[in-house]
Amino acid sequence: MEPVVLYGAPFSLFTGRARSYLIKAGIDYREEPHASEHFYESVLPKAGNRRGIPTIEFSNGDVIRDGVAIIDHFEALNGDNFSPRTPKQSIVSLILDVIGAEGMLRPCMHYRWNFDNDNEEFLLFHFQTIYNGENVEQAARERMALIKEVVNPAWGVSPENHGFIEAHHYMTLRKLNAHFAQYPFFLGGKPSRGDFGMMAPLYGHLGRDPAPLALMQKYAVRLFRWTERMNRPEPDVGEFANKAAAYLPDDYIPETLIEVLAHFATDFVPESRAACARVNQWLAENPDVPTGTEVDRGLGPCHFTVGDNTISTEAQPFRFYLLKRVQDAFAAMAENDQTEVVNMLNACGMTELLELKISRDIGRANNLEVWI
Fold first, then answer.
1. What is the DSSP annotation of 171-217?
2. Model pTM?
3. How do residues 24-39 score in pLDDT, each as one tens digit?
4. Cα torsion for 326, 327, 331, 333, to the nearest 10°?
5. Long-range contact list for 56-60, CB < 8 A, 24+ apart?
6. Nearest C-alpha neighbor of 3 from the set 30, 23, 21
C-alpha cells in the first residue's frame, strides 16, 4: 500500500498532532509542504478550498483536512486504540485534546513572535518553504509580519499580558515536568488522544522554536523527553522502570495530572465561559445562517480575567466542537461513573466545562466545519 501524503510543516502547530499519531499508529506516510502545483490543483479543492494543515491525501485521491478529523479516521479503523475506555481517563484525554487545540495559543504565539533575536532566522527559513516562485523570502516576511501584527493580538497576546503569559507558561513547564518525571505519557504507558492533542502546542511551537525550546530544555527536560518520545515509533521509555504499554490501571488519574489540569483551568475555564457567551450572542444575532455554512475561525472578541489580568481574544467555535465530545462522553456514562468524573473535575476546577454549550451544533461536510 502506498504511503499517505501528509501536507504539513515542521513548524506547524497542528501538524504536530497528526504527525505524531501517524508515527505512533505505524501508518506509512511522507510529509510534503502545502505549496506544490499538485496541492493547489488536486488537493485544495477537495479540502474545502481551505489551505489548512495538516491535510492528508490517500493514494486513491481522497483527502482529509484537519488533525482532529485525521485521527478520527484512523481511530475508527484501528479500534480506537489510542482512546481510553474508562470514564475518568476518557474524559481527561478528551479535555487535553481541547486544551491542545485551543487552550495554549497565547504562549505559542508569544514565544514565537515576540523573541525576534532568537527566532527570526529560524522562522524565516521555515516560512519560505510554504511558498513557490521567485520572491519566496518577501512572501514569507509579509506573512510573518501579518501574523505578528494582526493575528498575535487577536489571540490575546498584548504587551500588558506578556508577564502573565510568561509566568503561566513557566508554571506549565514545571507541572508537566513533574508529571513526566513519573509517567511516559499523560495516562501511563501509552499515548492517548490527549497526548496527540498536546503535541500541537508543546512541539510545533513551544518545543521547536529556539526561544521556548531553550526554556523547555532548561526547566522541563522530562517534558522535552516526552516530545521526543511522541515523535518516535518505538515506545522510547527506557528511563522508566515500568515499561508496560498500557494506561494506568483502575481508571487512575495521578495527582501530578490533577495538578496539571488545575493549572490549565485557571485560564482555560474563564476563557471558555467568555467564548461560549460570545458565540451564543453571535448565533442569536444571526439565526438564519443556512445549515452547511462554514464556521468561521473566530466570531469576535471576548474578554475574561485571570487574577489581575484582563485578556481579550477571539471567541473560537471550534473549541465547542471539541468540548461537545467531552460533554457527550459524560452524558453517555452510567450515573456512578458520572459521579467519579465530577469528583475528579471538581478537584481540578473544570466541572464547568460540562455545562458550557453553544446553542447550535457544529458538524463537518466537504472537509469543513459547518453549522448544523
1. HHHHHHHHHHTT-SBTTBSS--HHHHHHHIIIIIITTTSHHHHHHHH
2. 0.97
3. 999 999 999 999 999 9
4. 20
5. 56/4, 56/5, 56/6, 56/7, 56/18, 56/29, 57/4, 57/5, 57/7, 58/4, 59/1, 59/2, 59/4
6. 30
